[in-house]
Amino acid sequence: MTKGDDMMKDDDLDALFAVARREKPVADAAFLARVLGDAGAVAAERSEGAAVYTDGGAAQRGAPGPVGPGPWRLLGEILGGWRGGMALTASALAGVWIGLADPAGLDTVAGLVGSLSGEAVGSGASGDTFYDLLLEG
Amino acid sequence: MMALDDRTARSDAQLLAAYAGGDQSAARELTAAHAPRVLAMARRLLGGDMAEAEDVAQEAMLRLWKFAPDWRAGEARISTWLYRVTANLCTDRLRRRRGVALDEAPEPEDPAPAVIEALERGDRVRALEAALAQLPDRQRAAVVLRHLEELSNPEIAEALEVTVEAVESLLSRGRRALKALLAPHRDDLGVRR
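Output (structure tokens, whole complex):
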């Protein structure tokens, strides 16, 4: 007997593979339930951090109507609601005014900020302007 | 030749996008389509250990669920991605099981007792699986994906992250080793002389 006679032929091996292919392992219900449980848990976890929609298949990521607070609303809450937002806007306008306009108008801007924010804001009893303070060092 | 069934990559990607959007029915469809095949592959790569294969298959599917929002359609097939994840998870398990590095795994020399035991029970498929278990990890993965899962060589290359030439080499060496392992048992395997 030659060495070649001792070897298994390719066709024989392929026939064995064919038998093995016909034998499919059965995924039992408990295994499939665990896999689906993971899918549900991951989806639930994701929905805690972002808006997730469950409309039975038509859902698309990025659809309108976020569940959580939007970025503008969140920013507003941080800045103290609409009153805080108006005060901030007035302050920003005052900054622009200071940079562009005659310093003599500063008291007017300060008064505007104070009235919007509901607080007493003044430039000081002495009437010093921002420029005066700057020149004094 | 389709690697999985008649599903298209596009429909899988659409299902995954729907799942990422909160549609659990899409998760059920994806599970039915892929989990059994992932489980079968894991069981073959792990030498027939069904409990460990279930752990691996569950982990592979879990990674798919987590990756769903970032999946970009058209870049890869979900089936191939799952095969790659499963192959890597199985390799990690086998490494831990042996406690040696992959490249240090010895080449098979003698038929394992498991082959003989399976043949004594008249179980040719278990004998083949026992012989497969004697192959180095990447040879076994290539042979399983090619001859049992019926992937094409380019698909195997993508799943194993190697070149097509490397796949051809792995298959050649794997088949040669399998024939050497099983040759002494040709009569019991029902193979003609």
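The radius of gyration of chain A is 37 Å.
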